[in-house]
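Lecture 7, part B: from sequences to assemblies.

Below are the input chains for today's worked example.
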Amino acid sequence: KQEVTQIPAALSVPEGENLVLNCSFTDSAIYNLQWFRQDPGKGLTSLLLIQSSQREQTSGRLNASLDKSSGRSTLYIAASQPGDSATYLCAVNLNTGNQFYFGTGTSLTVIP
Amino acid sequence: DTGVSQNPRHKITKRGQNVTFRCDPISEHNRLYWYRQTLGQGPEFLTYFQNEAQLEKSRLLSDRFSAERPKGSFSTLEIQRTEQGDSAMYLCASSSPGTGDYGYTFGSGTRLTVV
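Predicted structure of the full complex, as structure tokens:
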């Protein structure tokens, strides 16, 4: 079974700071990896999807990298804003779309 | 297309009652997934449909849980004889192999509280 770990569990930073969220997974034979954002009591919003053949994906201030061989992914957030405060979840897919395995998330607070 | 729609948004029920949730996926997505999320945890896989066929079920899906996807469109998740341990957020997602990436789009979820 795929185990997904996210470190740190919680993070508090001042506005404007750059930050890195970490995700590790035990089975490197993944099909793809997806980062999500979840606001309290809400559903999940997709941020970035990385295929196993890719090394990184970028969207605005977000950059996600993937090192399949070491079982790691990072989500880099540049120039953080209070609106970035949310829980960030990493999920990996072993097969072609059967199910994602999720980490427990990193709760981010950006202080104005 | 307005994305994945889930109804109701919230449901409070007494222990022992049956509840049913509905999910309308993105119209061109043929794959539909149900997940359950408890407080402080990541979502856990429950079941998956490709068109109308239920192809995989988690061991979390006890005999009290049943999911259907008639005609490969919307899906329903029913919980019979609810227990307090069923209190959670139930999330639906859809995807399409047509894009080649199998990325998920999630709905807003149905929060179930069993009292």
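Note for the exam: The CA atoms of residues 65 and 97 of chain B lie 27 Å apart. Keep this in mind when comparing with the next example.
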